[in-house]
Amino acid sequence: MVLLIAAGGLATAVAPVAWWVHGLVTDPVRYGAAVQPLAANGELRSLVTARVTAQVTSALDGTSGTALQLPPLVQQLLSGSGGSGRSSIGALLGDDIHRVVAGVVSGPQFPALWATLTRTSHPSVAALLTGARPTRGTVYLSGSELMLDTTAVVRAVKGQLVAGGVPFAAQIPDTTAPVALARVSHLSRFLTVSGVLDRAAGTLPWLAGGLFFAAVALARRRRRALAVVGLVVVLAMGALTVARTAGPSWLTTPSTPHRRLVEAAFTALTDPLQHSVWRVAATGTAVLALALLAYLVPTRRRGRES
After folding, report:
1. 40-70 per-position pLDDT tens digit
2. Pairing verdict, β 178-183 and 139-142
3. Is the separation of the CB atoms in 167 and 100 below 8 Å?
4. pLDDT value of residue 41
5. Which member of 24, 219, 274, 304 has the greatest number of CB atoms within 10 A?
6. CA distance between the termini of the chain
7. In this structure, is residue 263 part of a structural domain?
8. How many domains does the chain have?
């Protein structure tokens, strides 16, 4: 009986995590709802602002004055030697570019842009969680880093620059602006088992229930066994809550880039998991309460009869 309850407790502890992974993989709406609050994260906005500004400026610096349709005299003045003008165009417009990027990222349109990014990133996230290693897409791997492609923000910035009459804005070439979100080494242990959890999501709850049922059915004192089952479920959910609280410290170190952003992303993504944990813990508490009540009722009857 003890082994059955212990095995059931282990399956119960893993089942919410498996369902959480399965939900992220199969339900883009749930995934989008989980990460949408990150649009208000100040560190994310600062990171995107800096990266998009640098990328747009770099794209201008790498574009010849001829491609930008500059007059020959302007090209000559920018280059200092009659060349292409690549060394100064980005610097010339740098303040305007940063101002527009900051306005887009801090403005009301960024949540909609972020929603677009999260919607298009879901297939890549699902592939990552099921064991694939995507090297392209909205979310992809580049070496040891998990990257987010913010091309949608670049396009919005270009549109704002054009609408604002910034010189040469219409000639800004299409470019990507990948943002490094986290180092894969911090996620590798989880990603090695996430695919297994996704496939086992439909089995684990039934397995846990079957093991608990068998333990109670085979027990000599079934009410006591039922109480132990309820207690084990509550303790398992408590352990999961502690693990979720400690999760950011396991994924990051003091030297981790954008540590607070990683912590905010972890909290947002695991919020549905915590809700599942609370529901399972409530079920375990109800089972424990019923078992204790079953103990008390016969005792009161025997006391009245005596």
Report:
1. 888 888 888 888 888 777 776 655 444 444 5
2. unpaired
3. no
4. 87
5. 24
6. 34
7. yes
8. 1
Whether residue 232 is contained in a domain is answered as: yes
Taking residue 203's Cβ as centre, other Cβ atoms within 10 Å add up to: 12
pTM over 0.70: yes
- CB atoms under 10 Å from CB of 196, counted, come to 14
- Quote the tokens at residue 146: 């998990």
Q: Is residue 161 part of a domain?
A: no
Number of Cβ within 10 Å of residue 242's Cβ equals 10
Domain, as residue range, for 260: 2-20+189-293
Which residues lie closer than 8 Å to 72 by C-beta, 6 or more apart? none
How many Å apart are CA 258 and CA 54, to the nearest integer?
18
pLDDT tens digits for 161-213?
778 776 666 766 667 777 777 766 666 777 778 888 999 999 999 999 999 99
Smallest CA-to-CA distance from 75 within 85, 86, 87, 88 is with 85
Q: How many CB atoms lie within 10 A of CB 302?
A: 8
| Phi-psi domain of 168 (left: phi exceeds 0; alpha: psi -120 through 50; beta: other) | left
Residue 124's CB is within 10 A of a number of other CB atoms, namely: 22
DSSP summary character for residue 138: S
Residue 285 is assigned to a structural domain of this protein: yes
Instruction: Using only the alpha carbons of the chain, give its radius of gyration.
Output: 28
d(CA 108, CA 220): 64
Whether the CB-CB separation of 38 and 265 falls below 8 Å is answered with yes
Q: Left (φ > 0), alpha (ψ -120 to 50) or beta: where does 143 sit?
A: left
Distance of CA 36 to the CA centre of its chain: 10
What gap in Å lies between CA 24 and CA 160, rounded to an integer?
34
Local structure of 257: helix, strand or coil: coil
